[in-house]
Amino acid sequence: MELAAIEQQARQLVEEIAGLAELRAGQILVIGCSTSEVLGKHIGKAGSRDAAAAIYRGIRSVQEQRGFAVAFQCCEHLNRALVVEREVMERYGLEEVSVVPVPTAGGSMAAHAFAQFADAVVVENIRAHAGIDIGDTFIGMHLKQVAVPVRPSQRTVGEAHVTAARTRPKLIGGARAVYEVAPQNESCT
Fold first, then answer.
1. Global pTM value
2. CATH architecture assigned to 3-167
3. Partner of 143 for a Cys bridge, out of 80, 147, 150, 179, CB 3.0 to 4.6 A?
4. Domain boundaries of the chain, sorted by first residue
């Protein structure tokens, strides 16, 4: 598959998910990506810096338009830590860990993001507002507590299977609870 096509698929996918998840400026989109799977190979066996660069360009173009933050998940060799901009770490009170992702320990996508970000850091945990998993990398641990599957019209990037999710606030209360503001709701007395 051509890199230009991979870039375009990534751009379209992120644009669709950002819309479906109603991502706003400052919110976080977590990306898990196996470039091996994108190229039709087994996860972790054939990482590609070129594929990572194409995917990054597609993601970044949408991010810059919409203003959300992106966190790139590392592979299991770095315990699925995440690459973010220092500003995101500080805004969300995340704790920095000491490691530099490389293709063989972190993955090609995370290594590329680390090299591209203006002030990249790695954090161990995050609670993102939405996520895209390209190549079955398992991003669920990095989503806010109530994750809702989102079914994108595009189900692959390259040869990699894609899943996605948005999050919503918890619904709390019982039979009398109301979840939407309506002027006719009676007040509690």
1. 0.91
2. 3-Layer(aba) Sandwich (3.40)
3. 147
4. 3-167
